[in-house]
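Known limitations

Files may contain more than one protein. Parsers should not assume a single record per file. Below, a two-record file is shown to illustrate correct handling: read the sequence, read the token line, then continue until end of file.
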Amino acid sequence: MEIKFYCTDLYRDDIPEPKTAAANMPDWFRKTDNLVKSKCPFAFTSPTDVEAKVNIKNCPAVFDYMSTGYVIRAWDNLIIRNIDGNLFVNWEKYILHAGPDPNVFSTHYTKNQMSGLCGEGEPLYGGFHKLLTPWFVKTPPGVSLYITNPSQYRDKRFTSVDGVIHPEEKPITLQWFFEWNKELPLNVSEENFDVNIQVIKKGTPLMVVIPFKRDKYVSKVEYLSQEEMFKNCQQSAIRYTHDWFGNSLYNQFRRKIGRLFI
């Protein structure tokens, strides 16, 4: 199955292309030692006090999460501004379909669309905000995209909103829908910008898009005896301990399915 990303050729070789998350592992993860001597955090109970060389880098659940999907990054240096109490964004180069004014772009607000958020817990600057990116995306029939916040990159200034889109009939514009988390100074001129807060540098991960094939599911709840749980369920402490990247049943299955989602 092929996921296609489209962009006007005016920006060829000028903006960061969507890349797999596996090719965009965050620096903090790369710099983490492969092995650290510690007790395995996944062995909640064990008949023996075993120590092994493990840490978050040895956890398949974390690794698979961080290597799944495609990273969409800032196409330019984005300037976030507080103008008269409202959030505005501008950037250095003009994106054609963003609007006729190349200087400052007003974000799309949810303030009047989500009245249940007003008051306590309401996001800063009138709600969530939305910007068009220069990217369009198309998926094969039956494949949708889950859009999520790139939390592994630890940028606390914004939180991208989770959502699901269905770009299988024709290409759909990828839109950055986000909540801004930092208080900004009011009506500050360009020469006085706080670069560390107000400038999202070109190449900064803004969101992750994860393809998934739609299907129908049913759920069922079962209660098992302790003996049956130990025999039939993978997350049995003694079978689970220190074997993530070894020959556990779970890891055998990971090797069998391969990297289906990246």
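...continuing to the second record:
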Amino acid sequence: MGRVGVNRKLKREKAPKIWPIHRKEFVFTFKPVPGPHPIERSIPLALILRDMLNLAKFAREANKIVKKGMIKVDGRVIREPRFPVGMMDVLSIPEIESVYRVFPSKKGLMLHPIGKEEENVKLCRIESKRLVKGGRIQLTLHDGRNILLPAEEDGKDYTRLDVLKIQLPDQTILDKFTLKEGSFVMVFEGKHRGEFGRLKAIEEVGSKLKSLVTIEKESGEQIQTILEYVFVLGEERPSISIPEVKS
């Protein structure tokens, strides 16, 4: 007879490399539930509390903190310890008055402390748009959320890979940033993950997502990656606070 039910265990040696855990200290770790981010680009909430913020020493303690409703993600109370937290998510801990935004880094993901003025703001990349019932345009964003545009909008101003600045938790669109030369961007995947700069050039090839882009960092150094790995943060300067990156 086959296995019955869902396997909630994940061996540490098979966990994504971006997770900040010791691979051989113990056998198992948290296995994230299906959510807004894929497993290779997210970290379970309880693991963040225990291994990144050091708010718990053991998994049991981290689980209790989450289940008591003490943690918010994007302005919403999360009670699932294995909830996947990913890039640009806003993590709030009212009990200790701490707010963090998740950014990519060389090692995977990092928590960047932000002020209260940024707690209800999030940047989301448009991954696709489609016509839905009623003739309205629906935008699908990188964190799994969908935004339905007003009936009077035809969606022509919204393009895949553009980034929306939205209000949390009601998803009101505050601003839009187009992926173009001159935009301030960050790299969230590949060997230059976690680096920031101004987009200097785009060399288009057959597949738009695989187009080669050149980015100039604040130091003047130029790096190259593919368009798919680029995330717009603002027009000429970032529209949100960003972590300092050591050159």
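Parsers that stop after the first record will miss the second one. For reference, the second record is described as follows. The first helix runs from residue 45 to 52.
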